[in-house]
Design a protein that fits this description.
The protein is an all-alpha fold and 99 residues long. It has 2 helices and no strands. 52% of the residues lie in helices and 0% in strands. α1 runs antiparallel to α2. The termini are far apart.
Length: 99
């Protein structure tokens, strides 16, 4: 549902996200291999987790690119559903009197 504050033709920069994800994936693979060869299992595991996160991100980005643009409602569609019940009357907070 629209909130009314976003542009009507807003699009995500999926191609830029794709290349940034590929760049991060390459560095994660490199880091995992390098730290495994150097005998640093903790750092190799950290880079392996980063490798997994970058791979999942890459899969999500490719899926969004393949889905294509989605329907965007026009300006005649209200940004929110009207409230069915009226709001309660406003009550002033109590005034504090100092001695």
């Amino acid at each position: 549902m629209r909130t009314g504050s976003e542009p009507a033709t807003a699009r995500s920069a999926l191609r830029a996200r794709l290349w940034l994800s590929v760049w991060g994936l390459a560095w994660a693979i490199f880091g995992t291999a390098l730290f495994a060869v150097l005998g640093r299992p903790g750092w190799a595991a950290a880079c392996g987790v980063l490798w997994l996160v970058a791979t999942v991100d890459l899969v999500v980005i490719v899926r969004h690119i393949r889905q294509g643009p989605h329907y965007q409602p026009g300006r005649d569609v209200p940004p929110y559903r009207p409230v069915d019940t009226p709001s309660p009357p406003y009550r002033r907070p109590p005034r504090h009197r100092h001695p």
